[in-house]
Each structure stands twice: as structure tokens, then as C-alpha cells.
Amino acid sequence: MKPIVMAALLATGSCLALSAPTARAQTAETEFNIPAQRLADALRAYSEATGRDVIAASQLLEGRRSSAVRGRLSPDEALTRLLAKTGLVAKHVAGSWVLQLANNPALLEKPADTGSESIVVTGSRIRGAGPVGSPLVTLDRTAIERSGYATVQQLLASLPQNFGGGPTETTLGATTRNGAGSDATYGSSINLRGLGPSSTLVLVDGMRPPLGGTGGVFADISLIPVSAVERIEILTDGASAIYGADAVAGVVNVRLRKNFEGTETMLRAGTADADMSEMQFGQLLGKSWGGGHAVIAYQFSQRGALAAAKRPYAREDLRRFGGGDYRSLYGSPGTITAADGRVFGIPAGQDGTALSAADLLPGVQNRRDNRAHSDLLPRQRVHSFYAGGEIEITERLSIHAKLLAAERRYRMTGNSEFLRRFSVPVSNPYYVDPIGTNEPVLVAYSFVNELGPQINTGRVRAISASAGLEQQVGDWRIELTGGYGKQKGRANTLNLVNSARLASALADTNPSTAFNIFGDGRANNPATIESIRGSYGTIDTYDNWSAALRVDGPLARLPAGNLRLAAGIEYRREAYDYFTILDLSSAVPIAAPFAGLPGPRRVKSIYGELMVPIFGPDNRTAGVERLDVSLAGRLEDYNQFGRTANPKLGVRWDPVHGLAIRGSFGTSFRAPHFDELLGSSLSSFRALRVDDPASPTGTSNVVGLFGYAPDIGPEKATSWTVGVDIAPPRIGGVKVSLTYYDVNYKDRIGSVSEDYLRFLVNRDLFAGVITDNPLPELVQSYFAMPGFINPLGIAPSEVVAIIDGRTRNLSAEHQRGLDFELSYAPEFAGGTVDAGVTGTHIFSIKRTLTEGARDTEVAGLYASPVKWRVRGRMGWSKGGFSASAFINYTGGYRNQLVTPTARVSHWTTVDLTIVQAIGAAAGEDGRGLQLALSLVNLFDRDPPFAEIPSFSSALGYDPEKANPLGRMASVQARIRW
């Protein structure tokens, strides 16, 4: 394995490393007694027994259990048995054993009038028409200001339909599930329905922004300035027929302010009980004239880091809460493992220069709670700039343009992800032998006192620009647009140990320059400390270019209104690059691009959407006040995997005034990420012997296929909704909306390689990846491939099956649920009441691992959405004053990470916002001063306790379903000039 491969493994998530053994320790048999248990715990026990250096990405260990290992065995035999049913293999790389999957050797001002002919609402390309049959949630400027939230990601996180799992600043470093490990720079995504952030299409004014994350997997909504947002439209329905790829779970379209007139200055300051501070400044300038309008906005946001020490549940030692002790085995002072495997704690209060064997503490393992000394949230600083405008060239021809640019910098005290034990030779001047055998010893040690804490730092720069010409020809509009976007992320992990240079420093015989690992860090030469300092860095770049020609207008006049058509052709080009700088295991840094990534993606699309009014005000009849039908279809051609076609049907029926029954049906898809198209460049084929109950010997010889399949295609989904909207005309201000949804997601891209040892044992589960009695020519073709691995010397004629563990289109997910909203806005005491509740209830989430496998219910489990999420509101406003209270409820669920399965309780918080306009701001033009007080989590409710262990750490709350901020108090002043 090349060093770049090690870098790729380390980049996938937090890792744990345990020091490399001496030659004697590697080959001598040892007595093992490791029971079957969580794989992370078993590996710790194995490391203590052997002294081996084992490195593993944390996401590989989550949810896996080891096999029991007992008896006198060599370290190789013991590790093979321990990993026997995990789907992981160990590779020897530069003195380390790297664990990896067997298949992956490399590793809103008032909202716009949606009835206007010039407005295009999310979910439809037809101007002046909303999405027929599909549910649409809108957060306008008033709702944004009354929410009390300071960022776009906070606003979207409050949506009941959004699941907090995936790439966000709260999950990175705490979990790698749901794709959180793909976020290297503490960005934030949105994950509607919990179907994955890549299944939610994010648009900014209808344009695709550049993407972030390893592989280009999500839109970083933390880069969008909230002060420049006019409204946010959320379509909770599949919409690939309208927008193309990724719109499986829905579409989030952030509309930026464009018709603002005047000058607005915003200042905001807040604190989380003095444990974390935030500050925000925004400046908005807008001007309209007879021939056009223009808006310029700038926003600066700064939020401090939140230290885990401020939150008692953010610990690795969870015994006080009834959980386990997951503290790191690497302390300062450290722990010595002698040649016979016994451990001796190094006493505190001494610098290691005069340490003797008699001073050591037999049987003591010094530990350190790394989580307690890290940050839960990074310090973030964001500069963002927006400019947009439109100019009428003639009465019927106009030009428009937009520019959105942002830079986000972050810094965070990390959780010491790269940990390992080191062999100290007898030649070290400070060497101490606990048992007098005069052999090298292993020391588990935290270098935090020498190097300082691990620091995660970096920056993200993004720019999106678009421009277009719009020509009106009669009642038709023709629009030609083009856009460009680029996002570049740079992530650095500092204050790590370079193992190669440390080995030299430990072998140094000069007391003044040798590294002393037997104290508490006080006795080491500063130059020596600097010599062992290492780091790890990544650079990822995503570019997209787009062009589109669109037309829309009336085709014919029907009795109920105009038959309207929107159609267009679009072109999009996307490119992604990934680069690593590894200074961990070699004397000099290794910098190289990630090999095998596909070249630019080119997408050609053609679409059409037809809106047919069947009944309306001019021809309504008994039982039919209104009946509309929409038909849409889209054909997309990808240079990387071919064509995909998606239709959509929408229907809305108003039996009587105030009652609407609607429904939609369509198909959607998600295009593979760049890293999912690596194909044969990361493939591995090998001859294996696996358990087979159908064989007389109990085992069978097979050819195993691992890596990435060459023909990965898009994920596909079929979704339908049925809903009702009620607004009784005799009860003013009452609105009720219910939507039942059903999403059947197929061809999910994934791998079952971790279960390859069970393929022939559980044929009913894995029939889709087994080829029995393969043709001899097919078997021979695999044996003839370069790099084919055959450690057991199996002959081609002895192969009885081919098992396919490659990453490819495999799994399926079927989700059913109900969205609901009830609102009431009556007049009261001279003002207006705003009361309501919105929420979602998931009936079922059935996941199927492979074709032919049994499905499994996962709703209400850890790493999946909860069954209930509800947000209620109660407010009153009059003139320039408003007061709003919100109740946020997240239902309880089961935590299957622990044995026995534990119940995690629900979490309910209350938010309060008070807004007062002073002077002219209370009038219709809104000019003057507006003051706001916001209290988020008013009663300072802690997240419910959840024991969340990972391979290298632990946490006492679930960052996917709760946040550690506590009560956040903010004041804001907004001045309109």
C-alpha cells in the first residue's frame, strides 16, 4: 500500500493507532483470552496483549463485533480470528497494521407574490404557478426574523422534515455515520427525510451551488448569509423531473433579496451561558429605478468554540451517567508494556530523568479523557458577499446577474484522533525496564504536553456567479442563462506525531537530544519536540459550469384557464480534485493527488412541464371548484453512466372553496459521487475459502470481488404523496395541511463486503451477490488479472462460486410517513395571533441490504430519524411589536450501540423571541430601528443522555438529534435607512 493510501484511510474519519511491536513480539505466541465483544474494545485488548500498531478509521469499527480469541496463538493468528466475521482485513504498512474493508484496499422583507407571472416557485418551472400536487414549505423574511436563529443552517435544522445526521459541524469528529466523515471542513448540509444529504437538492435562486465534502457530496449552507435571504422554499417531494439529479427527498431553494430599497444595517451578539459567544454584522444596500434594481449585501459572522469541558456529558468516561469508561489508554505520564506483556503505570509528578523500575506502578493503566480536553464546536468566522441586479435593456429585453462569494475559516481543539504506542530501545538514555530483561518496551503516551492539543484548522472559499438574458415575446418568455461555481476546501490537522522522526529521537543516545517518553513532557529539548511534530492536510476542489435555454408561456386558452408549458435544455459540467499532504509516517512529507478519480462530468438535459387547468372559476361545477393537472418529464444524459429519464404527475382538486385534495407521483434519481466512480482503479480480486454449510467439508473455495464495480449507475426512487389542505372560509385564519408520503428508494450505492464471510452461510440474504458454478472461462479471467491474490494456492477448477463484495448499486429503502401543519391566526386585543404546530411522523423505514434480502425496520433507531418531530409556535403581534414562543420536540428512540439496547428519552426545548420596532420602523415603510431579543432553549435543557461509543472515543449525547449549545441568548439591532 502506498503512503497516499494510508492518507486516504486516515482522511475518512477519526482513527486509533497502537504501537508497532518488536520482531520478537510479532512472532512469539501469546496466551489470548479475548471474548466476543464490540470490535473497538476487542482491538484495544489485542493491542495491549501484543503491542501491535493497529490503525483503523472509526467508521469501520462502528456496529461491528469481534469473534472470540482464546488460547496460545501467534499475533497473526489471533488477529485473523478476531477479524474473522467483521469483513475487515489487516494490511502491514510501514511497520503498522492497517484495518480496512476487504473491498477497499485504497480506500424574508415580505414574501414575493407567488401569483405574479414573473415569479417561479420551487417545484415548478412555470411562472406564476406553484407545484401542483406537491407540498411546499416556505420560510419568509418575517418567519426568519421571528425564529431567533442566526444562520441558515439553524433555520433548516429546525424543520421537522430535516434529519440532523450527515455532514454538519456538530457531527464531524463525533460520528462518521450517514456520511458525516465526508465533511473535512466543518460545513453543514441538509438531509430531508434522512435519505442522505446527497438526496436533497440545494439551490440558490434556482441555481446549483458548488459542492463540498470528499467527493463533492453536499451543498455547504453555512456559506449563505442569512441577512441576504428573502425566503427559503422547501419542496418535500421528489422533483428530478423538474430539476434533475439529487432531488430524491426534496429541494431546498434559498431565494436571495432582490427588490430591497434603501440601506439596512444589522448587528447581533449572543452567548451560550457565557460558554460560547457569537457576533454578526450585516450591511445591505438596495436601489430600484425605472429600468431595474440592484442589491449589495455583506455579512460577517463569528462564533467562538464550545469547549467540551463546559458540558459534563461530553466525556469519554460516562460512568457517572450509568455508561462505560471509554477513556483513552494514552496518558501523560504514559503506561509501559514490558516484554512479557505486563503493564506498568508511570507515576505523575516527575519528568522521567530519574525514573527507576521501583517507581513504576504495576498493573496500572494511565488513562486520559481526550474528549474533556477538546471542543464540541469549532470557532467559525464567515465573510460573505452578495450582489444581484437586473436591468431592462428594452421594454421586453432584460439582463440579470448575481454573485455570491464567501470565505469560512475554522479552528478547533480536536479529540486526539491519531494515537499510538511506541517502542523504546534500550539505547534511549531514559530507558526504564520494569522487569529487568533489558529488552525494548512499549509506551502508550499522550504527547499533548510537548506538542499541544490536536488542532483542526482550515478554510473554505466558494463563489457562485450567474447571468442571463430574458426576452418577452408576446405572452412567452425566453431565458438564456449561464453560471459558474467553485468551492475549495483546505483542512489541516496539526500537532500530530511523526512516527518516523520520533523513532529516530527515541533511538538517539544523546541525553540532550533524545526524546524522553517516561515523564510528563517537561524534560524534552524544544528542538527535539519540533522535530517530531507532524501534520495531515487535504485540499479538495469542486467546479461547476452550467448553461440553460428555457421558454415558458401559454399554449392555448381552455375553459378553466391557460394551458401552460415550460420547457428547456440545460448543460452542466462538474469537476472534482482531491489532494493530500501526509506528514505522519515518513521522514519527509508526502504530497500527492488521489489517484483514480474520474474526469469532468458532463450532463445534457431536456425537460418539459405542462400545466393543464381542467376546472376553474369560469367552468366550475358541483363538487369541483378547481381541478389542475401537471405533467413533467426530464431526460438527462451523463458522459459517465448514460441516460436517465424521470416523469412526474401532479393533481389538485378543490371540491369546495377552502378544501384542496392533492397528490403527486414521480421518479427521481441521484447521480454517483466522483469517488463512487473509481471503478477498477480500486479493485481487488482474490481466491478465498469461506464457510459453506452446503459443502461436505463445511467450507468452499470462491473468488471474491472487492473494490468498486465499473458500472455504478444512479440511485433511483419512486415517490408519491397524497394530501389535503383545509382553510375554512367561515373560520378566518385557520389552515390545516396533511400530507402522506411514500418513498421507495432503490439501487442505493453501497457494499456488503463486511459480511462476505456470511455470503454462503446466509444465502437467503445474499443471493444477489453470489454466482454459483461459474463458467470456467469467467473464473480463469479473474485468475489472469494483474494483482490477483491467491494466498491459499487455490486452483481455478476448485472454485465453486464467485462472491461480489464490490461497492455498487445494492440496497433499497422504503419510507412512509405523515407531515402535518395546523395554524390559526385570529385577531386578538387589537393585534394578530400566530399559533400553529408543524411536524412529521414516520410510520416506517424498511431497509433491504441486497436484492432478495429480508428488510429491516430502522425508524426510531440510533443513526436513523426518530418517529416524531414537532415544532409548535404561539405568537402575537401588533404594530411594530411581536412576541413568539416555539416548542421543539424530538421523540425518543432506541440506541442499539450498547448491550442491552438502551432507550434514549425525548428532548423538548422552548425558544422565545421578542421584537420591537421603534420610531418609523413600526410604520409601513419599515424604516427606523428594530430591536430583537432571542432566547433559544429558554430553560437550558441538556440533551438526553445517549451512550455513543466509537472506536477511538465516546460521547454522552447524540449529535444527530440534539445539540450541546444549551441556552443561547442573543440581542439584535436592525436599522433601516
Brief summary of the model shown:
The protein is mostly beta strands and 977 residues long. It has 13 helices and 50 strands. Helices cover 9% and strands 45% of the residues.
Beta percentage is over 45%
Beta-strand segment tally? 50
Give the N-terminus to C-terminus distance in angstroms: 63 Å
CATH class of the domain at 1-107: Alpha Beta
Q: Helical residue percent? A: under 10%
Discrete helix count: 13
What's the alpha carbon Rg, rounded to whole Å?
A: 30 Å
The averaged pLDDT comes out at: 89
Q: List low-confidence stretches.
A: 1-27, 104-118
Oligomeric category: single chain
CATH architecture of the domain at 1-107: 3-Layer(bab) Sandwich
Class derived from helix and strand content:
mainly beta
**Shape by Cα distribution:** globular
Protein described:
With 977 residues, this protein is mainly beta. Among the domains are: 1-107, Phage tail protein beta-alpha-beta fold; 679-711 and 753-804, no CATH class. It has 13 helices and 50 strands. The strands form nine sheets. It has a 22-stranded antiparallel beta barrel. Strands 17-16-15-22-21 form a five-stranded antiparallel beta sheet. Strand 12 and strand 13 form a beta hairpin. It is globular, with a radius of gyration of 30 Å.
List keywords for this structure.
single chain, 977 residues, mainly beta, Phage tail protein beta-alpha-beta fold, 22-stranded antiparallel beta barrel, five-stranded antiparallel sheet, 13 helices, 50 strands, 45% strand
